[in-house]
Amino acid sequence: MKLDAILWDYDGTIVNSVPKNIDITKSILSIVAPNLTGDNLPQCLQCETAYHEANHAAKNWQDLYVNYYGMTEDEMLAAGSLWAEHQLSNTTSVKLFTGVDDAVRSLSSVAHGICSQNSSKNILNVLSEAQVDAYFNAVIGYDDVSQHGQKPSPEGGLKCLDQLFDSPENKTIMYVGDHEADVQFARNLQFSLGQKSTVISVAVAYSGAAPERWEVKPDFIIRSPCELTTICEQFL
User: Fold this and answer.
1) Could you tell me if 11 and 141 are in contact, meaning their C-beta atoms sit under 8 angstroms apart?
2) Using CA atoms, how far apart are residues 42 and 26, in angstroms rounded to an integer?
3) How many helices (H) does the chain have, and how many strands (E)?
4) Fewer CB atoms inside 10 Å of the end CB: C or N, the chain?
5) 190 Cβ contact list (under 8 Å, min separation 6)
């Protein structure tokens, strides 16, 4: 079984974007839910540790906004529509996790893509600054799929594979992410592709996730980016 492509999540997997995400969320709350700002700022937005805990506990970003930030359904939808714009305008620095660039370079014989709920333009800017953009042949972000096609829907993964290959059939794909929804995304992508393709789920724990506690279990767990190279060697 030869590995044909590695698809990556972005936030919490390739980069530590928590400081920027907190800052962006505060700005968006000031617009759509000012009652959740200042002294009423949700606890999970008051420090990085609390944010990590909430983010990894939530099923998806909608669940995070409603059940952890305390937003209404309408406020959540309004916030989602503002995310890409604020991602691009916010200047908070974002850095790759140590070792991600080395892992990507060492696996350059395999096609790489990104399936994220971040803005694709924002992702490309960060990849370019880190000088790893040349290794990623497809980047699918929040604004590239429908509202109902966000992860764990496989829509973004299918679009990503369409950019990487003429046909995704008879391919072995690996998806790397830091959230239980990323594992479900990999399973949904497998279902959509059918039995002629294989989707392997890798969960990263180096950004604060605890994959051992998830109901939906990944195929592999890594605690540093360099461990991905070791796993992939058995498929190359």
Assistant:
1) no
2) 10
3) 9, 8
4) N
5) 197, 198, 199
